[in-house]
Design a protein that fits this description.
Helix content of chain A: 25-40%
CATH topology of the largest domain in chain A: BirA Bifunctional Protein, domain 2
Strand content of chain A: 25-35%
Keywords (chains A, B): Aminoacyl-tRNA synthetase, ATP-binding, Cytoplasm, Ligase, Nucleotide-binding, Protein biosynthesis
GO biological process, one term (chains A, B): prolyl-tRNA aminoacylation
Subunit structure (chains A, B): Homodimer.
Oligomer: homodimer
InterPro entries (chains A, B): aa-tRNA-synt_IIb, aa-tRNA-synth_II, aa-tRNA-synth_II/BPL/LPL, Anticodon-bd, Anticodon-bd_dom_sf, Pro-tRNA-ligase_IIa_arc-type, Pro-tRNA_ligase_II_C, Pro-tRNA_synth_II
CATH superfamily of the largest domain in chain A: Bira Bifunctional Protein, Domain 2
Largest interface: A-B, 63 and 63 residues
Distance between the termini of chain A: 31 Å
Catalytic activity (chains A, B): tRNA(Pro) + L-proline + ATP = L-prolyl-tRNA(Pro) + AMP + diphosphate
Number of domains of chain A: 3
Structural class of chain A: alpha+beta
Chain lengths: 491, 491
């Protein structure tokens, strides 16, 4: 398997597209903008799901499932929400096909037109709040902490595997609370959980903050987000959590009786991460040789490749390897012993490098004689000879080391790509040049934000959550500003 | 919580509908034919998923994800397949909404009409085989063993929670093989896995067999199935596995190079179970007091209800109960200690009976003095006093006993409701009377099958897999028959 991978410096975007396909993560389907997630890619997504699901359940959330379809009238009930999604809705209008009378094939049966069109959910606030009206009567029914794993559809015109697809997989949490403060706390909690997941499991450093009004979710009063930086200096929004105020409760008339017996509208949040995280994972760590996966999310953590001539040598190697495989598995390490005779070791090395397997062991005649393994780590491409009796301990420590090392590498890159600027010229220079995050003063108006976006393609990624207050002047208009905000070009 | 549940004898169908809603499994949504699966119901489904997924992976299958939408032209490629699904397809025709010019609200934007309509997948053979054409070139790529967990849509006119809904959740396996025999073996293997899951985990006895030609999956050469019997004497098809021959490989031109270098079409299977299993689970075991859940699938296996007056008594009880909860959890038993002060013990007893929690512990002042718990099992409603030091062992053995007992009860019911008949009059009498499965001779023609269905509403559920060959005469036409087949009215 020759990798033939375009290098990042040559064409980052092409490198990404090729890598996703060649590493067997996903590919385009025959359906415009919809991807096929291949088994290797899906195995990574399953690991992400399992960990997130655990974190959601540990914080009291339960899973449920709501309909794929949303009646058009539901979507219309919250004004800014429908405004935000109307332009990218897949619309179901009919419920039957039939044979054309002229024999030209199967056509839509015009007699089977729906009375009301159904929208394939772009997000589920409306159908869920229509349900919550039935579920919530009293303060005793609150908080209601629900999550859903689902597919959603947003008809994007320009799509890219994982990063922007017409259909994608995600989880969407939808919670209901008795007080504003409790809902705000929930929205913040979920942002922190997403950040913890990104940092600890994906090894992706993220910056937490809130969105400006114009970048908020359609229907939210506040949108919290985590922002990551890719190796090409562009930012990627990796997760969002919304404080929805009482907007949806009012649109769907969801009230509860307080302890004091008063009727009040419920307070809401929603929050989600999607298969877009797969794109962030790939773009943060991978290199010109292929994927680099964090051990915690790698479907195969260790691969063992035998180097042999003839069955006799293979048998001798297997005699050594089989108990090792067993021991590693007993320690919860996923290991693959690849003794296929249809491919040469060099081909296998390339393949597992491309697929980002964190640790590769090779064992040949000389190792057998010396009682050693050649241990190669994917992140640094370093190899060393390790005594057989030490190899399990070595692998265990590598799992930890690699996880930490790739996080540190990504963090170093990000820290080297956060620039403070004080003038618009300097801003443009950085944005056009080295890229990355730029901290600058802004006057707080959507007009200035729009102008910057139009002139530089950079957007405000977030207002930092724990930034120091620092008074200054907007780099564009010179008007007063109370703190710097974070700009970047973004995916 | 008064249960107010209609009894089975009064109206079985009404009992089922009420139970599903009252036990918090699912409810109808505002979208025609689409259900909301509530957290308690979804927790059962998650347990089913986890177990099935494990069994699939243990037999070498991997998960992947394919698009929700299927271009109309794909669906049309396999003639009998489109014939089978055309009448119940949700069709996406547009990709945008807009504000009506007359201000009447949000309408479909007629300028955003799709060039080719998209069908919301009713099943994924066509989109998957379009993909497999790219994945399969050589015998080295086979077998390809893939499963997908997904939502599908079939526009049913008459729907019932879990049993028949417009949208439902399922898994669909799609495999590709080099030889006919390997594909047949795979289809049979999956039927056996489904049967094992039904018997061992759901405690639902099933009969294995093959479908007659007219009951086969649209596009299959053979459909294997498992059939269960509900308490009203009606059968329920609980899972199917299809040998698809080379039909889809031919329709989508999927060929592989054999070891000898010849180009041949691939052999296929597909197999699935759905949220319909939830209906089977409810209807097999539950009684007039509510759900009865098998311990292996119960989200809460043990509930502990304290009976107390005042906080001091509760504290004394909690001091006993807390370590017990911890010990049970350490043994992998899911336990809930319900010390809510907003509801009385009687209310709680009713609630957990309704929700089918296998074991209920109660502890009051007298128990505290005597060092005992009152242990009640949901399946038999028997109660006994158990010494505190024996209670863990008691619970552990009850988990096993209840699982076995409800299976045995269901099996006894089924065995008492399989009737051999030799005349059509006798057949009608049984079908109209006690119901259940009926074993009878049939001449093997679709005409006779249709006539029986029309006259009695009974269908051939399956041709038994391991039935003894027994020559006889068709009960309707008197023509020769080589073995009895299994009839029933069915869901």
């Amino acid at each position: 398997m020759g990798k033939n991978l375009t290098s990042r410096s040559e064409d980052y975007s092409k490198w990404y597209n090729e890598l996703v396909v060649k590493a067997d993560l996903a590919e385009n389907s025959g359906v415009r903008g919809c991807m096929v997630i291949k088994p290797y890619g899906f195995a990574i997504w399953e690991k992400m799901q399992a960990q997130l699901d655990k974190m959601f359940k540990e914080t009291g959330h339960e899973n449920a499932y709501f309909p794929l379809f949303i009646p058009k009238s539901y979507l219309s009930k919250e004004a800014s929400h429908v405004e935000g999604f109307a332009k990218e809705c897949a619309v179901v209008t009919h419920y039957r096909l039939k044979n054309a009378e002229d024999g030209s094939g199967i056509i839509v049966d015009e007699d089977a037109k729906l009375e009301e069109e159904l929208i394939v959910r772009p997000t589920s606030e409306t159908i869920i709040w229509d349900t919550y009206r039935r579920w919530i009567q009293s303060y005793r029914d609150l908080p209601l902490l629900i999550n859903q794993w689902a597919n959603v559809v947003r008809w994007e015109m320009r799509t890219r595997l994982f990063l922007r697809t017409a259909e994608f997989l995600w989880q969407e949490g939808h919670t209901a609370h008795a007080t504003r403060q409790e809902a705000v706390d929930e929205a913040e909690q979920m942002m922190h959980i997403y950040a913890e997941f990104a940092e600890e499991h994906m090894a992706v450093p993220v910056i937490k903050g809130t969105k400006t009004e114009s970048e908020r979710f359609a229907g939210a009063e506040e949108t919290y987000c985590i922002e990551a930086l890719m190796q090409d200096g562009k930012a990627l929004q990796a997760g969002t959590s919304h404080f929805l105020g009482q907007n949806f409760a009012k649109a769907f008339d969801v009230k509860f009786a307080t302890r004091e017996g008063k009727q009040e509208h419920v307070w809401a949040t929603s929050w989600g991460v999607s298969t877009r995280l797969m794109g962030a994972l790939v773009m943060t760590h991978s290199d010109d040789n292929g994927l680099v996966l964090p051990p915690k999310l790698a479907p195969i953590q260790v691969v063992i490749v035998p180097i042999y001539k003839g069955l006799e040598q293979l048998d001798a190697i297997s005699e050594k390897v089989n108990p090792l495989v067993k021991e590693l598995r007993s320690k919860g390490i996923s290991v693959k012993y690849d003794k296929r005779d249809t491919h040469k070791p060099g081909f296998k090395f390339n393949e597992y490098e491309l697929k980002g397997v964190p640790v590769r062991l090779a064992i040949g005649q000389r190792d057998l004689e010396n009682g050693t393994y050649e241990v190669a780590r994917r992140d640094t491409l370093q190899k060393e000879s390790v005594k057989a009796e030490d190899v399990v301990a070595k692998i265990e420590s590598l799992m930890q080391e690699i996880q930490e090392n790739i996080h540190k590498k990504a963090l170093d890159y990000r820290e080297a790509h956060i620039t403070k600027v004080d003038s618009y010229d300097e801003f443009k220079e950085v944005i056009e040049g080295k890229g990355g995050f730029v901290l600058a003063h802004w006057d707080g108006t959507p007009e200035t934000e729009d102008r910057i976006k139009e002139e530089t393609k950079a957007t405000i990624r977030c207002i930092l959550l724990d930034a120091e207050k620092e008074e200054g002047k907007c780099m564009v208009t010179g008007k007063p500003s109370i703190q710097r905000v974070l700009f970047a070009k973004a995916y």
